[in-house]
Amino acid sequence: MTKAFHLDVRHTGAGHALIAISGELDPVTAPLLRDQGMSLLAEGFPHLLLDMSGVDFCDSSGLSVVIALWNQAQAGGGSLALAAVPDRLSRLLRMTAMDTLIPVRHVGDSTA
């Protein structure tokens, strides 16, 4: 059984915010991440870091939201990066070549 979906938001500095995600990122929960990320971007936090360490599952709807947030951040002169990406999600990012556009720090990276 997977844990309930949860977003924990921390403002980490001027214009920077961290969103720690836990649970499944799927058609039901992906809109919650999209809304939270878009709100942060609109509120003056153009640099987002998504902590993916607690993500149990991510499908195409979750990936679509990550891409949409990356696009919106880029359009506003900001950035989006992923941290502590689990292996199963890393494979999805590689298969879609999104790891060539979005900065990704994998679980176990010494730079994470």
UniProtKB/TrEMBL annotation:
Pfam family, one: STAS_2
STAS domain sequence ranges: 15-112
InterPro entries cross-referenced by the UniProt entry: Anti-sigma_ant (IPR003658), MlaB-like_STAS (IPR058548), STAS_dom (IPR002645), STAS_dom_sf (IPR036513)
CDD domains cross-referenced by the UniProt entry: STAS_anti-anti-sigma_factors
Domain of life: Bacteria
Molecular-function GO term, any one: anti-sigma factor antagonist activity
NCBIfam families: ant_ant_sig
Family: Belongs to the anti-sigma-factor antagonist family.
Name of the protein in question: Anti-sigma factor antagonist
Organism of origin: Lentzea jiangxiensis
